[in-house]
């Protein structure tokens, strides 16, 4: 209450800057485990305080990991070998296989990018924001473009992480499959970049919280943490976001693009589960496993609570409403609520399947209100084709 009183008494621009600093401090304060703080703390400073992703220059992240060579070339993981076969058969050409000839008008009400209820108008009105029909369509355009921009930034992180993991993974069949994921991620960067450039006409900067996660993963020397962070956490986030937008948009080119990417990403998460399941349950000490449990939980909360689209706020509402009011609008947006639901529907069962949802950590998930996802299907139980069919039924 004292914090709110002091902050609310400041001029709007100063208030928003102080709010940003306080929020960054709260992110760090949420990291209860000191080992998690050592992993995410430096990345949080670089992302949330220094805004390294928004300086207009390429970011250099020091990567340190061991490249694992095996000169006997064993066939050591039948499940990964099967995934490799499926990945080879599932390759597609981003130039030839998508209907790029479709004309996209981001503000066409006949082919809406988002449903009318994606953002709750009543919450905008509550804070004195009244948009006419044209402004409302432009706000939806901004939200979709921001979302797709974060997809693109995340795919660049996934491309680099997949290359690192292919070097570091200790299963040779996993290296062969990993090579196909590098190709997948490169294709995803290609198609999202083209869609944003040719059809949407703009690109938003990387969200600071996404930068924190990518920075922490790229600079961690442990191969299984790269797997956990990228294959389970970030790809789980991506599947939730891709699936939500796939069911909500009416734009046919975007739907086809997302459909193909979803089927690739389903394989990627499956790969992460197969690679980590035995390793976590048999190769790690209890202390190491607990660190990964805590890390996964902290990152899950970071992804749920901190993707507030402040880049859209800065463009549309800075100086008109407070960042606190904008958080209320985003958290109350039905579209964002659907995204959070789908994300955890995909994420939590995979954490359970690899052994990071033990009785020790379950109370933390219960306090966070995530128990409804405990019994869901993990990645090995759900192919990309099945996932798309499920989404089509939900959207019908």
Describe the structure.
- The chain is mainly alpha-helical.
- The chain has a single domain (70-395), classed as Orthogonal Bundle (Ribonucleotide Reductase, subunit A).
- The chain is 68% helix and 0% strand.
- It has 16 helices and no strands.
- The chain has helices spanning 2-8, 12-29, 34-49, 78-89, 121-126, 133-168, 172-200, 208-219, 223-248, 252-283, 286-305, 310-316, 323-331, 334-353, 362-367, 384-395.
- Helix 6 packs antiparallel against helix 7, helix 9 (223-248) packs parallel to helix 11 (286-305) and helix 9 (223-248) packs parallel to helix 16 (384-395).
- The longest helix is centred in the middle third of the chain and has 36 residues, at 133-168.
- The chain is globular, with a radius of gyration of 21 Å.
- The termini are far apart.
- The model has no long low-confidence stretch (mean pLDDT 88).
């Amino acid at each position: 209450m004292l914090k709110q009183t002091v902050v609310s008494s400041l001029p709007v621009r100063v208030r928003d800057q102080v709010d940003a600093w306080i929020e960054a401090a709260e992110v760090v304060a949420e990291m209860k485990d000191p080992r998690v703080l050592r992993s995410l703390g430096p990345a949080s400073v670089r992302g949330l305080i220094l805004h390294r992703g928004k300086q207009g220059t390429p970011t250099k992240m020091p990567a340190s990991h061991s490249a694992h060579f095996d000169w006997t070339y064993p066939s050591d993981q039948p499940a990964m070998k099967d995934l490799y076969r499926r990945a080879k058969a599932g390759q597609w050409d981003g130039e030839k296989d998508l209907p790029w000839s479709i004309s996209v008008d981001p503000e066409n009400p006949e082919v809406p990018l988002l449903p009318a209820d994606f953002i709750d108008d009543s919450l905008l009105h509550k804070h004195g924001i009244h948009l006419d029909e044209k402004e409302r369509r432009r706000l939806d355009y901004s939200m979709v473009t921001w979302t797709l921009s974060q997809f693109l930034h995340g795919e660049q992180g996934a491309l680099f992480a997949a290359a690192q993991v292919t070097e570091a993974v200790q299963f040779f069949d996993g290296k062969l499959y990993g090579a196909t994921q590098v190709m997948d991620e490169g294709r995803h960067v290609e198609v999202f970049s083209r869609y944003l450039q040719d059809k949407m006409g703009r690109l938003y900067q990387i969200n600071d919280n996404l930068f924190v996660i990518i920075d922490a993963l790229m600079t961690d020397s442990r191969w299984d943490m790269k797997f956990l962070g990228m294959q389970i956490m970030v790809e789980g986030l991506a599947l939730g976001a891709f699936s939500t937008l796939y069911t909500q948009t009416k734009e046919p080119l975007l739907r086809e693009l997302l459909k193909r990417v979803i089927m690739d990403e389903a394989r990627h998460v499956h790969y992460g589960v197969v690679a980590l399941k035995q390793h976590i349950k048999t190769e790690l000490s209890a202390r190491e496993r607990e660190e990964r449990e805590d890390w996964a939980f902290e990152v899950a909360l970071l992804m749920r609570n901190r993707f507030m689209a402040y880049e859209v706020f800065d463009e549309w509402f800075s100086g008109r409403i407070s960042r606190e009011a904008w958080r209320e609008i985003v958290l109350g947006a039905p579209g964002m609520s659907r995204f959070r639901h789908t994300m955890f529907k995909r994420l939590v069962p995979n954490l359970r399947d690899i052994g990071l949802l033990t009785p020790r950590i379950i109370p933390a998930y219960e306090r966070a209100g995530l128990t409804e996802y405990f019994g869901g299907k993990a990645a090995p139980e759900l192919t990309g084709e099945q996932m798309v069919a499920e989404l089509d039924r939900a959207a019908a």
